[in-house]
Design goal:
7-stranded mixed beta sheet, 296 residues, alpha/beta, 4-stranded antiparallel beta sheet, 13 helices
Length: 296
């Protein structure tokens, strides 16, 4: 299978300039060309591309070293694929579509951020195998907190990840459907659905009684299995297969839905996720997705 070697600039450089030579100055272009001696490098505002390369361990090693040295992402993609081949983009929320872990920020309002964050990190790294248990433990610590803390987190702390809005505009312009599927909470996913014009969202519902969190989650917990099932169900809802979906995530509970997708993107992800994803964005914004494939 022929591959394209694609170099994606950092989110900050891509956001600061639309000109390819600003993102990829001459010295960087020369270094890119040295990855495949004799090959031509094609520049676009978001990427540098060497077409039709052969995937070898030596090339992979050179790409990894190059990416770390220059703080860019170097990935291989199928030369024959196009972004328009896909029908659905499914995203995790916390630390993927947005920059924070909502439950950690909620916990900050009751002085338990460090304790909750430690559980979150262990779960995302895959060290806690039972996501249901880890979520139940964390939510229980929020018992008695005034529900107004949720609004404060959304208004004051929640930020979209670099390139999120541009990526969504790009895929929506191609007619692709969007799914936000999260082990987080509906309070946030529903607001993001309205803000970003998303097609479908699924997440956990926090129980609130008399304006206070009870420390419980209502209904089925959205864990790794539920995420994968949701991707399959939503794809079918729009007349597509799971392998026509692009899945973007960062933690171990995203792996099952990433594995059934046609393309998986590890975004600022834990090592276990980077190792198993189709491509990893360690420096590029989410809109790096728009530059992965050829347009012709």
């Amino acid at each position: 299978m022929a591959n394209d070697l694609v170099i994606l600039g950092s989110a900050s450089s891509a956001a600061s300039s639309a000109t390819p030579t600003a993102v990829f100055p001459s010295h960087l272009q020369a270094a890119i060309g040295a990855l495949v001696p004799g090959a031509s490098v094609t520049l676009t505002p978001g990427a540098a591309r060497i077409a039709d390369v052969v995937d070898t361990p030596a090339l992979r090693a050179a790409m990894s070293a190059f990416a770390q040295q220059h703080e860019v992402d170097a990935v291989l993609v199928d030369s024959q694929r196009r972004l328009a081949d896909f029908r659905l983009v499914a995203m995790d929320m916390d630390s993927t579509l947005i920059t924070i872990e909502c439950i950690d920020e909620i916990a900050d309002y009751c002085g338990l951020k460090a304790e909750v964050s430690a559980i979150t990190e262990a779960a995302m790294r895959g060290e806690i195998k039972d996501f249901n248990e880890s979520l139940t433990r964390r939510v229980a610590l929020l018992k008695g907190l005034d529900a107004s803390a949720l609004e404060k987190v959304f208004d004051e702390r929640l930020q979209l990840s670099p390139g999120a809005e541009n990526m969504l505009r790009g895929v929506q312009s191609l007619g692709m459907r969007t799914l936000l599927v999260s082990g987080g909470f509906t309070f946030f996913t529903e607001r993001l659905k309205t803000r970003l014009n998303l097609d479908v969202t699924r997440a956990n519902t926090l129980e609130i009684v008399d304006g206070k969190l009870t420390g419980r989650v209502l209904g089925e917990i959205v864990n790794a299995q539920v995420k994968a099932r949701t991707v399959t169900e939503v794809a079918a809802q729009f007349g597509a297969r799971a392998d026509q979906a692009i899945v973007m995530g960062d933690g171990s509970n995203d792996l099952q839905m990433m594995e059934i997708a046609g393309l998986s993107v590890a975004f600022r992800a834990k090592p276990v996720v980077r190792e198993r994803a189709s491509v990893a964005f360690n420096y590029a914004g989410l809109d790096g997705l728009l530059s992965l494939f050829r347009e012709d």
